[in-house]
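Predict structure. Chain length: 114.
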Amino acid sequence: MKSNKLHNIYKKLPSAKGNEIFDKIIQKSGVKIERITSFGQATPTGKWLKSKRNEWVILLKGEAKLQFRLSKNVIEMKPGDYMFIPAGTMHRVEWTTPKGKSVWVAVMFREQGK
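Prediction complete.
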C-alpha cells in the first residue's frame, strides 16, 4: 500500500460466497491489519482458533457470533462491535450471516518485548 493514498474498506469487496477472504491492508514491525470478508462462513465444528498474536477485531458490516472455549456464552456481534482477543485464547466463529457480506477489520500484534 502506498502512503498518502486514500483507500476505502468497502471498495472491491470480494464475493466470499465460497470461502472467507482475507485481504492484507498493512504489515509492518510486528503489526498486521487485514480486512476479512465473510458470507455465511463459520469455523468448522470442533475446531478452535488460537493465535500467537493479540487480536483486536471490529465488525463493520453484517452480523457474526463468536465463542471462546472457556465460556459457554456465544457473543453476538453487530456493526460497530469490537473486541480484544489475547494471544493464545482459543476461540471460534460460530456463525456469520448468510444474508449478505460481513466485513471485519482485524489488527494482530505482539506486545513489545515478546
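Summary: Strands lie at 21-28, 31-38, 54-61, 64-68, 74-77, 82-85, 91-96, 102-109.
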